[in-house]
UniProtKB/TrEMBL annotation:
<dbReference type="GO" id="GO:0000049">
    <property type="term" value="F:tRNA binding"/>
</dbReference>
<dbReference type="InterPro" id="IPR023509">
    <property type="entry name" value="DTD-like_sf"/>
</dbReference>
<keyword id="KW-0820">tRNA-binding</keyword>
<dbReference type="GO" id="GO:0051500">
    <property type="term" value="F:D-tyrosyl-tRNA(Tyr) deacylase activity"/>
</dbReference>
<dbReference type="GO" id="GO:0005737">
    <property type="term" value="C:cytoplasm"/>
</dbReference>
<protein>
    <recommendedName>
        <fullName>D-aminoacyl-tRNA deacylase</fullName>
        <ecNumber>3.1.1.96</ecNumber>
        <ecNumber>3.1.1.-</ecNumber>
    </recommendedName>
</protein>
<comment type="similarity">
    <text>Belongs to the DTD family.</text>
</comment>
<keyword id="KW-0963">Cytoplasm</keyword>
<keyword id="KW-0694">RNA-binding</keyword>
<dbReference type="Pfam" id="PF02580">
    <property type="entry name" value="Tyr_Deacylase"/>
</dbReference>
<feature type="short sequence motif" description="Gly-cisPro motif, important for rejection of L-amino acids">
    <location>
        <begin position="136"/>
        <end position="137"/>
    </location>
</feature>
<dbReference type="GO" id="GO:0043908">
    <property type="term" value="F:Ser(Gly)-tRNA(Ala) hydrolase activity"/>
</dbReference>
<dbReference type="GO" id="GO:0106026">
    <property type="term" value="F:Gly-tRNA(Ala) deacylase activity"/>
</dbReference>
<comment type="subunit">
    <text>Homodimer.</text>
</comment>
<dbReference type="GO" id="GO:0019478">
    <property type="term" value="P:D-amino acid catabolic process"/>
</dbReference>
<comment type="function">
    <text>An aminoacyl-tRNA editing enzyme that deacylates mischarged D-aminoacyl-tRNAs. Also deacylates mischarged glycyl-tRNA(Ala), protecting cells against glycine mischarging by AlaRS. Acts via tRNA-based rather than protein-based catalysis; rejects L-amino acids rather than detecting D-amino acids in the active site. By recycling D-aminoacyl-tRNA to D-amino acids and free tRNA molecules, this enzyme counteracts the toxicity associated with the formation of D-aminoacyl-tRNA entities in vivo and helps enforce protein L-homochirality.</text>
</comment>
<keyword id="KW-0378">Hydrolase</keyword>
Length: 147
């Protein structure tokens, strides 16, 4: 499982002209699922992201997590995180097939909610417009293969 986590002052996802999820201060998470991923990896990813301390404390040190700042969470499925970029036209065969990826994406959302962070989100497989105002910018990459 791979994730790109961006600290934002606001973010939203729009599908067919309708805003389906939006947050103020918090994390925009682009989440990709690989073919070998499991629920255990989704749980580990949720723990890592929700515990990530990249918000500034009173001394301007990145020391606070999402809970400490009352932040929101917007999660968007992103199979392109598994792109094969050896050529100029990327291939996406490294991403999990939808029948595996969608349930794990939904499981990740439920794990975030179970941990007290019910996420705003897009819709798996939809053509989405994602808008964000990056804060910092702070952008962190996660890959369960290296965690």
């Amino acid at each position: 499982m791979r994730a790109v986590v961006t600290r934002v002052t606001s973010a939203s996802v729009t599908i067919a002209g309708e805003v389906t999820g939006q947050i103020g201060r918090g994390f925009l998470v682009l989440l990709g699922v690989g073919p070998q991923d499991t629920q255990a990896q989704a749980e580990k990813m949720a723990d890592k992201i929700l515990g990530l301390r990249v918000f500034e404390d009173e001394n301007q040190k990145m020391n606070l997590n999402l809970a400490a700042v009352g932040g929101g969470l917007l999660v968007v499925s992103q199979f392109t995180l598994y792109a094969d970029t050896k050529s100029r036209r990327p291939g996406f065969t490294g991403a999990a097939k939808p029948e595996l990826a969608e349930p794990l994406y939904e499981y990740f959302l439920s794990e975030c909610a179970r941990r007290g962070f019910p996420p705003q989100h897009g819709r798996f497989g939809a053509d989405m417009a994602v808008a964000s105002v990056n804060d910092g910018p702070v952008t962190i990459l996660f890959d369960t293969d290296t965690m």
